[in-house]
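Render this sequence as a predicted structure.
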Amino acid sequence: MENYYNNLNKKLDNLQSTNHKHHKLESRNQQQPFYQHTVNLTNINFTTEEQKLLDQGMQYCMPQPTRHNGQPSSSKRNRQ
C-alpha cells in the first residue's frame, strides 16, 4: 500500500513541476458567430415573445391553460 501512495506522490510532484501551456484566454473571449434558430421566410413580423417561443424548437411543450374556479377551459365546455 505504501508503494501505491509513493507512486501517486511522484505523479503529483511531476504534474506540479512541469509547466503546462495554458490556452490563451483571449481566444475564449472572442464571440463565435451564432445563427438564428428560426428563419422567417414570410413577410410577417414576429414580436420578440413570438420569436423566443419559436426559438424553443419543435420539442418545446407549451403549458396547458389553467382552470379558473374549478371550471374546465372554455373549449371543453363548448363540446358538451
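Summary. Residues 6 and 12 are 10 Å apart (CA to CA). The mean pLDDT is 77.
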